[in-house]
């Protein structure tokens, strides 16, 4: 079991409050039946620094922030949690930090390959705290953001489910297809998921 404690960050808070909150060190631990282990402080400091850079970034400094992040060991999933973007609005024009996060994801995939943080990884991560309809609208809006056209097209293609029957046409067991599509990760939102509807047709 892995638990994470992250700094509370909100766009609605004054800068002084954000600065104070972001200085709180993160604490992560792995617990089996017994035992408690802390991650090293340098790793936490790097994440804290990245959060601060994103919060303070302006259009003119966005590229520098992305470059700095690519040199760190922090995964986009952890950065999303630290920025608490999963629980915020999914409208890009109302949440500039979300747009910056997607730019970081695009850079991460360009460096490590799309499967290093796949479309399904992104989708199911965001689905935990958002509706399927909100995410569909979000991914459509990405195509209008410079530099995010590729990831927008990829996400839309994946969510359309149009590739399912072709990619898995040789698979004869529906349960195997179900697991391949990781539909169990949709939880109670399974019926809302476009990919699930394609699986039903399969």
TrEMBL record:
InterPro entries: PexRD54_WY, RXLR_WY. Residues 107-157 form the RXLR phytopathogen effector protein WY-domain domain. Residues 66-104, 168-202 form the RxLR effector PexRD54 WY domain. Keywords: Secreted, Signal, Virulence. The keyword Secreted applies. It is found in: Host cell; Secreted. It holds the Pfam family PexRD54_WY. The keyword Secreted applies. One of its GO terms (cellular component) is extracellular region. Its main location: host cell. Belongs to the RxLR effector family. This is RXLR phytopathogen effector protein WY-domain domain-containing protein.
